[in-house]
Amino acid sequence: MHPVVKLIAQRLALGILLLLAVSVLIFAGTEMLPGDVAQAILGQSATETALRNLREEMGLNQPALTRYFQWLWGILHGDLGTALSNKKDIATEIGARLGNTLFLAFWAAVISVPLAIGLGLLAVRYRNRWPDKLISGVTLATISLPEFVAGYILMYLLTVKFRIFSPISTIYDSMSFGQKLNAIALPVMVLVLVVLAHMMRMTRAAILNVMQSAYIETAELKGLRPLTIIARHAFPNAIAPVVNVVMLNLAYLVVGVVVVEVVFVYPGMGQYLVDHVTKRDVPVVQACGLIFAAVYIGLNIFADVISILANPRLRHPK
Amino acid sequence: MSRIPVSALIGLVMTGAFFFTAIFAQWLAPYGLNEAVGDVWENPFWSSEPSQYLLGTDNIGRDLLSRMIYGCQITILLATASSAVAFLTGSILGFTAAVVGGWVDQALSRLVDLFMSLPSLILALVILSVLNVTLPVLILVMGLLDSTRVYRLARAVAVDIVVMDYVEAARLRGERTGWIIFREILPNALSPLVAELGLRFIFAVLFISTLSFLGLGVQPPLADWGGMVKENKDGLVYGISAALVPAIAIAVLAISVNLVADWILNRTTSLKGGRNG
Amino acid sequence: MISMRDMADKPLLDIRDLQIEATVYPPGEKPKTMTLVHGVSLTVEKGKVLGLIGESGAGKSTIGLSSMAYGRGGVQISGGEIFVNGRDIMKGGAQGLRALRGKEVTYVSQSAAASFNPAKRLMEQVIEASLVHGLMSKAEAEARAVGLFRKLGLPNPETIGDRYPHQVSGGQLQRAMTAMALCPKPDLVVFDEPTTALDVTTQIDVLMAIKEAIRDTGVAALYITHDLAVVAQVSDQIMVLRNGKMVEWGTTDQIINTPREEYTRALVSVRSHEHAEKPSSGDPVLKVENVTARYRSVPIDVLKNVSVEIEPGHTLAVVGESGSGKSTLARAITGLLPPMRGQMIFNGRTLSNDLAGRTKEDLRELQMIYQMADVAMNPRQTVATIIGRPLEFYFGLKGAERDRRVQELLDQIEMGKGFADRYPAELSGGQKQRVCIARSLAAKPKLIICDEVTSALDPLVAEGILKLLLDLQKLEKVAYLFITHDLATVRAIADSIAVMYKGQVVRYGTKSDVLAPPFDDYTDLLLSSVPELRLGWLEEVIAHRKMESAGN
Q1: What is the DSSP secondary structure assignment for residue C425, as one 8-state letter?
Q2: B105 vs B92, B97, B112, B148, CA distance in Å?
Q3: Which residues of C touch B188 (CB under 8 A)?
């Protein structure tokens, strides 16, 4: 077997193993913490009967290991259980919301990735001159903004002071594509703002690292044009680090989405998760946590696979 | 001592002011934290009848300035305590892993990998969904989750130092592990760790604010800045800017500390030990 | 219109009163401008080779790159004129420079491994300049490249171009880079320390290949190196540089045989230092008996059945190339890599193989000095702490008594007053190594292991360190185990020699025995590979040696 295929297979296997470990962690985190889960859910004033019923309902009387495997078995068959708070099937509830969240994240990524790479290149091109300093100053400021702060400042400016957008980003299935895009404009802007700074800074560092290599000097001393140097010599070596940066930040987007959805009352996964954390609806929290973790781990594996594929040492072994 | 750049100086002064406010909040605040003094959302700025309160009042008529000052105290207390927890746990375990090596290192590092394989906000939400959220619980949860990052840095820095010839020379001289950790490794690992302390503090401020904003952090009757954004956010749609005051305070605090951390980071990466660093 | 006569009269490269500056950005301070090259002038005739030689900081690489109007980092040409083929290249703008670089002037760097793009095949990179400048068709360029590969002695010249840089060895990459520089038929090639990173036995093969390629293609060259013996083999003329100024410029013969300047004389005589062998005195201070060792997780013995002895006050030199196991021997003796078999008897006591099992007295009497002095000292400790710690640790000296002893040691290493409060970063390379010597002397050891202690230093500084070590040996009666790859150093310091090859001692005895014929094949190769400061030496060696080097 080609070593690259082997490495990728190993990486994928490791990812599955990690996901399994994470499922244990999430399960343990919600079910095996000190104290009585039922008590924690219902509060100190709960009656003994209510506690007993809830324990029965959650299957808390069975050993934890059995419950974990039942839970895992269910997930593998697409059964995420039912919510405690409204007795609805979690899988169907999540289905529509996951689509909304991905819609939001997709547009944020589509805008921020090219923008970040472009600005990163610009900063490298004018390194230590004013465009670079301006970009790094602005990004230093935006890195310090939590998502909800950026969200409310933008909301105040663009919906209250200048009435450009609507402050609520609710979307329905009946809306046209254009209406949907208009509705998510504001949350997308916030996500872009928050992710862009990190992504651009890391892209700049990654490209700078490649541009300072000795083989770039060799190319310059061959009398190549700057654009040829970038396209032929810098680009092939910059793919892996830049893809890594992008994936890392898209994974970060997953977290940003949670808060942004709450700010703009957007009907997605994040909003759903936060609502049910407040209601202490453990099955929903477990399911959402696992899905977020899966997306996060998936993106990281994707980044690793790309860097394996882009590495000439691995593609062409000795 | 080399010259301090203007940006770092601004950062230092601002950070100092925030900490001063946090420490002396009880004496600085004109009114109590939960003392209702006026009407709902009195607006001090650009209003036909300006409020007598400097920053106006909040969603149930409490003095916003007083709440901001107390909020500063809670926010900074939580952020400081949790980054201290993160720092102590992370750096002690990281150094131990690097110096002892072997299975201790393997076990700790794989565990940290597992925790870092999912976003800390998600993990925090999962854990806080079943815990009674009190200040010590918040400090521990945030501190321990964040200690994974400190662990990685401390271990990486220490591993780099452990392979240095001067550490080998100390071993060959017959020095004990204590001397090696405290006299050979620590002085050389300190500056990257101090710069990291700044970044961890910022992260803690943003983290606690986000949690409180989501309603899962500091619980009433206490309040921090994140929670105050949440309380006042509904007014925003009607053009009432009360929610922006704590929001901007969070950003300013984070930027101030960032300016200082950035400066320390630049200094440590360009100095090879010796004086100053 | 320039007539043929004009062309013939003009030198190929003509640098006049070159001044080069660099802007440095010390942290927290204002940027500073330093002058690296002060008014150097030189010319290179068509087809001739000029060697540029000097220690680190002499500005030789900077001058070499100025022939392509290229400055690394913050380096810029601030004065003077540079003519290539009669044209002032500073006046041609960016486009003019691109037409010059890779067409008229090409470059071979010290580290070909870093200078090749890891993501592209060798052939593509070798012919790139020829194609970009429209000098030949792709087929012609490839045919020329294969021809150059063959001439430079690369294995499988037809197919090696299909390989990626990481798939060939360091010596081969250096040859491939030479082929890359020669492919566009340039007028001038700048060779920037092209053999410095190679093992000594590989070095002469590459050197020979470069020399033949220069001769056969009739190209002119600037050959930059710190090794006078190397540059003497390939150059027609040599220019000696120091601190960015020219010291002396003449034919190779004149520079090495009748140097005019004091500094050149010092450079020339650096290797001529000979050390008289001490007579045997009986009981050895250290006996290494049948030591076999391997690293964890590597299933090969790095040391195979090694036995050597050192007498008190004597020096045993352990020589070999990288990978021969000579540094592993040091690690085994110090206990950092406990041997699997064999034992060591030190001062009549059997040493514990493992470091943890050794007594404080064992540790004190066996000290070590490292190759890289800057990483052998804690950058956060002052010289007084560094030298004082062994005094405190082994002898319990404190306060004024300790300070007095530290000063005594500083005097012994010829550094005198005013250094005790300095940090390592505030010392020069030679001073750092001296402090390391003082630190080991502070323990009053019986044996010091010196691991390549001079190989990171400039020749004149290295000679000073060797002299100091010899003086201290007389005074303190300390024995040295001297690990090195440089046979000139061995001649200057050793009483006995062990030659190591692939983990084994292949030749061992007193210096006079080891260095006298008949030789075994490997010792012959190693001895003959050491560049000698003599015209025609290279050709002689290539013609007469018994064994080819392994890692070319």
Answers
A1: G
A2: 12, 4, 11, 13
A3: 378-380
C-alpha C233 chain-centroid distance: 17
CB pair distance less than 8 Å for B188 and C426: no
Shortest CB distance from A148 goes to which of B119, B213, B216? B213
pLDDT score of A32: 58
What does the alpha-carbon distance between residue C387 and residue C439 come to, in Å, rounded to a whole number? 5
Q: How confident is the model at residue C435 (pLDDT cuts 50, 70, 90)?
A: very high
Is C166's CB within 8 Å of A217's CB?
A: no
Closest residue of chain B to C371, computed from CA coordinates: B165
Residue B271 has pLDDT above 50, yes or no: no
pLDDT at res. B46:
60
Determine contact, residues A169/A266, Cβ cutoff 8 Å: yes
When pLDDT is cut at 50, 70 and 90, the band that residue B20 belongs to is very high
Which of B119, B64, B57, B251 shows the shortest CA–CA distance to A151?
B251
pLDDT (0 to 100) of residue B80:
93
How far is C324 from C321, CA to CA, in rounded Å? 6
In whole angstroms, how far apart are CA A278 and each of A151, A274, A275, B247? 21, 6, 5, 22
- Residue C2 — pLDDT band, cuts 50, 70, 90? very low
The interface predicted TM-score (ipTM) is 0.81
Q: Do A236 and C100 touch (CB under 8 A)?
A: no
Given a cut of 70, the residues of chain A with pLDDT beneath it are 1, 31-44, 58-61, 167-169, 318
Query: How far apart, in whole angstroms, are the C-alpha atoms of residue B161 and residue B173?
Result: 17
Helix residue spans in B117-222 (DSSP H): 120-128, 135-162, 165-173, 177-179, 186-213
Whether omega for the bond prior to residue C459 falls within 30 degrees of 0, making it cis, is: no
Phi-psi region of B65 (alpha: psi -120 to 50; beta: other; left: phi over 0): alpha
Q: How many A×C Cβ pairs under 8 Å?
A: 73
Residue B37 has pLDDT above 80, yes or no: no
Tens-digit pLDDT profile for residues B136-194: 989 999 999 999 989 988 898 888 888 888 999 998 998 888 888 888 888 888 877 88
Q: Is A109 helix (H, G, I), strand (E, B) or coil?
A: helix
B/e letters for B174-186, b = 16+ CB within 10 Å, e = fewer, are: bbeeeebbebbbb
Q: Is the pLDDT of residue B35 over 80?
A: no
> Chain C residues with CB inside 8 Å of A221's CB?
68, 70, 101-102, 106-107
Nearest to C408 by CA among C441, C436, C361, C453: C441
Q: Does the CB of A227 have a partner CB in chain C at under 8 Å? A: no
Q: What is the largest CA-CA distance in chain A?
A: 84
Alpha-carbon distance of C224 to C55, in angstroms, equals 11
C-alpha span between A81 and A96 (Å, rounded): 16
User: Backbone phi, then psi, for A25, in 5-degree steps?
Assistant: -60, -45
Bridging pattern class, strands C303-310 and C286-293 = antiparallel
From CA C218, how far away is CA A131, in angstroms rounded? 48
Say if residue C498's pLDDT is above 90: yes
- Tell me the pLDDT band of B273, cut-offs 50, 70 and 90: very low
Angle between the N-to-C axes of helices A282-310 and A269-278, in degrees from 0 to 180, rounded to the nearest 10: 140
What is the full DSSP assignment across C517-532? Answer: SSPPHHHHHHHHHS--
Question: For residues C394 and C441, what is the distance between their CA atoms, to the nearest angstrom?
Answer: 12
Q: Is C457 helix (H, G, I), strand (E, B) or coil?
A: coil
CB A269 within 8 A of CB A97: yes
Adjacency order of strands within the sheet including C237-242: C105-108, C188-192, C220-225, C49-53, C237-242, C245-251
* Cβ <8 Å between C29 and B2: yes
For residue C103, what are its two tokens?
């067409």
Give the CA distances from residue C477 to residues C314, C316, C469, C494, C497, in Å, rounded to whole numbers and listed in that order: 8, 14, 11, 15, 19
